[in-house]
Specification:
homotetramer, 344 residues, alpha/beta, six-stranded parallel beta sheet, globular
Chain lengths: 344, 344, 344, 344
């Protein structure tokens, strides 16, 4: 019956239950109205069984159990190098797909995966969760509503509390592809304008071993947008005071900013001045509301048959910008984004 | 075996699954490490069954099923007029007890219930959740650590976004006992000093119908503490800008404050100045972290055999202060708290 | 000629050039458009000569030289016990009068002085400078404009960085008349409603010697206004973190607040959290803009023949409230302001 | 006598009493302890006479009257194109010299003027007043004290409330030399490290007529410092919300920021959220304390025979960076600062 169908929860299977996948599984199980956790899978079966027991769902022993099931959707949260194959399999199985970023670090591979998605016509959403952060979203809203006018200048700072292990950096694509890619997405999101040129400068200031793998841990990037807006993005792998995530759009009529939340709103005043607490430690605390809202948007889109709000084009563009940023750093010159684009 | 016992979750039954009880049940089920939801009960059985189904636990058909069970603890979240009898029953059943405030609006009845708790020697915690709010707790911590010195002046503002229904006010004990009682608790908590005198002024400014039942909707109270500290508490049943909850301790060496959180950290600057969003709407949003931490403290105390941090004395003192405040308002004079104390 | 007269500066003589009088003289000389410093007088002649030399004006050797001159106005900044006689002399000499508060600590004497002012019909302004502070004034503006609706609750905190000498307190009238009198004025100013009842509690927490002269150094006062608004005022003679001056009006439609300025807008974030500087040290720094604006208002009123904005009624009412506060503290009960009023 | 000499004020003549020169003259006359305004001169004699009358000093009819006088120092505040000749004349007359920026837009001319200063050995200070702003200075202090560790990333935003007239831009050197030059100075000041590379992007977004003279009104610049620190500077000729001046240094141990002051500290909360006032309108209001402190530093240096804190090297370096920024914008590539340096 239609009425019954309408209220049935969207049943989602989670593939990969490491730190981020486990969080997604918990959110789907408990905090996303209209969604239900249908099953979990992990290449390391004990991990899947542990999460399954705790969340009282089935642990799939094989990927086939996921793809051949009656699940409505899958969340691909496994290691990045598996994303392309899983996306293609999910598309062929006609599942709606949520995929953690990145789809791939290789533009050809990414295009192959997104092509399969497009061919199958399945709903697809990429995990740029920060778009769903209420404060960042308020910046975007201020642009869309016109209250800040035409965007002229954007400032984005993203600084992590501590650097990742060297091993992670070796295969992550480096700072521009594993970290600043969120900011490339944010720059497109808040301005509503594509990026046409990138100039990058970077240095190793935090973790000397990163130099061994050709990466930087501190960077400052200038983006030129198609509409003439100029964006400055800075990244550091280590902010001593904690996770720092700020976005600012300055336009012809005003400015919208997203500031850092505090761990709490207490403060102490003494003869030495005022003391306030630092920021929440890292992204799981800082961005929890964004993950919940990300899932709400996905579920809503799939249920209503509308396009998910962060889809294939949004999965592709930041990779291209990131590749251009790497080239700019390497070659010491501004790089046009079109230089990176592969023939279709 | 001891080792096994140590890691077994504390199994808790929730009695009463209205708005607040349902929230407690969900938190116990999903967000409190070391706790497990064992069963739920509600005088209105369909309510219990609904929550039980959603949270995948048993719905008890009778209170006996709760008290005669092997549950470790009960959470009393039913209507206030049932608290005394349930507390006594829980004590007799040797359950650890968490009880929403108030125990009773009648001091003799409250003493009867707390006497049963004391006689049985069961762990008891009263639901003054605001003590567990990170920002309010930081104020208390600043006093305990000595950083603000001896408390001299305290300011507490509590203002609700909208008044409750008249029917609620008829049986709630009125503003001093259903609302400001949290602030009386806060004054004791942040100063660490008992209250010895109360002076209250109040008025009907928000909801004229409250005058029919002899209540006020706006009040300002002066407390004198045993150590000489002076506390000002103001309450309003309706803050147009949303839920307003602030605490400030001024002492010989400095000041600690707890400010209101914002709905988010975004802001917009235009020629008209800066705009920031209002506060989160009401207590379930504002105080969610405090409820989680409240349960963590209860579970920790019961498991380790230590005294719960907000116990019988803390359940009694605010009621006495509230009764004194009502008398002060009625008689137009400062009232010594000892005037209210019943002979034991 | 009218045109010439219109642009001639208002020539003002300053009587008393101690700390506050010297500041007024400097402001008149350099920072108040339309005003000119005409002469200075001090009972201690070398003080007058010093200021006169520095500011390049005449030092009057006698008060007659001031009152018999062609000065347009006088600023009475001498010690408080001289104010009544000087006000009467100024009135008789037909000078416009600016007078530092208090006119007198004795209501009969104050009425005698204000009666002379009224009889002479000279412009008169009392030095409640805080009304001219831009932030405090913005609170008043928010009430007048209706944006906060009807005032329901007011909070005022005034805390000095350090207590005055005991000798000062002996003759100042004590905390309620030398310090909180500004807050009584502020309560009337921001609400636009007279005060009808006062309840005061106070203690000696900061400077034990104040007990010898029957004064307190820490106090909390409840005011009931004619329109039902309730005001809480707290004062301390010593805030470890510096001069603390805050005003808040909560009304049916919202809230307006005046927060403390910082010494500067810098901040430092480290692993220990955020540090911001304390407040500017004391009233000359904190309230400098208010003193300039106070003079602008006086000069404007005298030049245009309109009533100065803080006049005889505003000089009298806070004294009556202060006397009621002293009585409330002494007698341990709320005091109706009308109890203090002398028959005319 | 030494004692007398020590306390004699430093007598300063002001050359050029347009908007900025008049302000300097007033500050010297009234607000700088140890300084005295000795005379004023302006090529437009009525302007000099007006200021002289108001401030009660002599108006020099010729520059010779200034340079041949017994004045201790001169303040060069005339139009920029006169600075080089006046500096050389002042050096030859052995006056201590304060000079508004820029010395010259031509590096050869600037070197000629600074060479004369060096040859004469007279004290020299260039008017980069923002270094003396208390909040910006607190950022520098945090770097010097080590509390933020080694600087890694700097963000500077400078946005004016409204664009200057086109005629001004024609001869000012354009945005990089008339506006961002302050930020180039700030980048050197807060990091303590010279700039070695500049990359600039800019656009005409605010005032289309600026395109006629080859200038931009919106720009984003990346600086690379000698120690590896990366600085992002953004400028706009028009911020709808008022004058916006922010500085931030992120380092290995923390971050120091200088935020915008508000017009006042009042705020209003309603159902629509919070409203706070915009910034003080423009630089005379915003930076008044910095001008006073700038003069205090100059007077102190001259009197004690120490080097003024912002001297010839600080006058030269920002011009070189500005020239490199113009070249970078023109040529679309990062420019090494050394490319601009003329052979001595």
């Amino acid at each position: 019956m239609t009425a019954t169908t309408a209220v049935a929860p969207l049943r989602i299977g989670v593939i990969g239950v490491g730190r981020i996948g486990r969080m997604h599984a918990e959110l789907i199980a408990h905090q996303v109205p209209g969604a239900a956790l249908g099953a979990v899978y992990d290449a390391y079966e004990p991990a899947a069984r542990g999460v399954a027991t705790e969340l009282r769902v089935a642990a799939a022993a094989t990927l086939e159990e996921i793809f051949d099931s009656d699940l409505d959707a899958v969340a691909i949260c496994s290691s990045s190098d598996t994303h392309v194959d899983l996306l293609i399999a999910a598309a062929e199985a006609s599942k709606a797909v949520f995929c953690e970023k990145p789809v791939s670090l290789d533009l050809g591979e990414l295009d192959r995966a997104l092509g399969a998605i497009d061919a199958a016509g399945v709903p697809f959403q990429i995990g740029f969760n920060r778009r769903f952060d209420p404060a960042h979203a308020s910046v975007r809203d201020a642009v869309v509503s016109g209250v800040v006018g035409d965007p002229h200048l954007v400032r984005i700072s993203s600084r992590d509390p501590a650097p990742p292990p060297l091993d992670y950096v070796k295969s992550s694509g480096g700072l521009f592809l594993d970290m600043m890619i969120h900011d490339f997405d944010m720059a497109r999101f808040v301005t509503g304008s594509e990026v046409v040129e990138v100039f990058a400068r970077g240095a190793v200031r935090v973790e000397p071993s990163f130099a061994q793998v050709g990466d930087v841990d501190t960077a400052l990037v200038t983006l030129v947008h198609a509409d003439g807006c100029l964006t400055a993005i800075d990244n550091s792998r280590r902010a001593a005071y904690g996770y720092d995530q700020r976005v600012e759009v300055f336009g012809s009529e005003g400015m919208a900013v997203s500031a850092n939340p505090r761990a709490h709103t207490g403060a102490v005043m003494t003869a030495d001045g005022e003391r306030r607490p630092a920021h929440p430690y890292f992204f799981l605390e800082r961005y929890l509301p964004s993950y919940v809202r990300e899932w709400q948007a996905f579920v809503e889109a799939v249920k209503t048959g509308t396009a998910p709000p962060v889809s294939t084009g949004d999965a592709r563009a930041p990779l291209v910008i990131g590749l251009a940023a790497r080239r700019s750093l390497r070659e010491g010159r501004p790089v046009r984004v079109e230089e990176e684009v592969q023939p279709a």
